[in-house]
Amino acid sequence: MEKKSTRVAYGETLVKLGKINKDVVVLEADLSKSTMTAYFKKEFPERHINVGIAEADMVATAAGIATTGKIPFVSTFAHFAAGRAFDQIRNSVAYPQLNVKICPTHAGVSLGEDGGSHQSVEDVALMRAIPGMVVLSPADAIETEKMIFAVADYKGPVYVRLGRLNIPVLFDENYKFEIGKAITLTQGDDVAILATGLMVSEALEAAKLLEEKGIKARVINVSTIKPLDTETVLKAAK
C-alpha cells in the first residue's frame, strides 16, 4: 500500500492552492523544511514569510494580514502552535473570528527522533476549547489535499492537525471531504470504532482482525473533530 505523510501532502497542496488563489500567504517559524511549506516558498517567495523562532509573533502577524483580505496559512510544530502561541490564537485570531488557517505538523506522539519535548498531546483539547475554532485532522494524503482546499474556502479560523509519519493512502481522487461530516468507511453493527488522523488506518486494520473473529465493526473517519458530526456518532451508538 502506498504511504505518504500528511505534512508532505500539505506542502504540495499549498503550491496548488497558491497557483489559483493569489490571496494565499504562508507564514512559518523557521521550520519550512520540516512543515513542507518550503515547497510554497520555492514557488511563491513573495508570499512566504519566515518570522524566525517566534511562534506568537507569527500568529499575531497572520491575524494582521487576515484583516487585509488575504488568507494566511500558519505552520510550525503542533506543540509550538497550540502551546507557545495559544494566547495569540485565542485573542488575536479566534476572538475576532479572523480568517487564519493554523496548520501545524508533527502532531501527537509519533515523532520518531524529535522526542518528547516536541510531542503534542494537548493541542486538540486546547483548540477545541476555543469558541469559533474549527478543528480538523486528515486520515491520509488525499484527504489532506481535499481538506486544505475546503479550509481555504471556509471563512473563519481553522486548526488542521498534520503528522510527520508516512501513513497509508486510504482514499482516491474521488473522495469527497466536507467540514463537519464524519465518513463511515466500513459497515458493522457489533461495534463502532471512531478514529481520526493516522489512527483511521489502524482502525481499519483492527476491523479486519475483528472480522476474522466474526465481529462486524463500523469504522468512522472523524476528520472534523469540531464541529463534531453528532448525527453520525449517535447513529453508530444505537
From TrEMBL:
Cofactor(s) needed by this chain: thiamine diphosphate
Domain Transketolase-like pyrimidine-binding positions: 4-169
UniProtKB keywords: Thiamine pyrophosphate
UniProt-listed Pfam families: Transket_pyr, Transketolase_C
Keyword Membrane: no
Family, similarity comment: Belongs to the transketolase family.
Protein's recorded name: Transketolase, pyridine binding domain protein
Organism: Leptotrichia wadei (strain F0279)
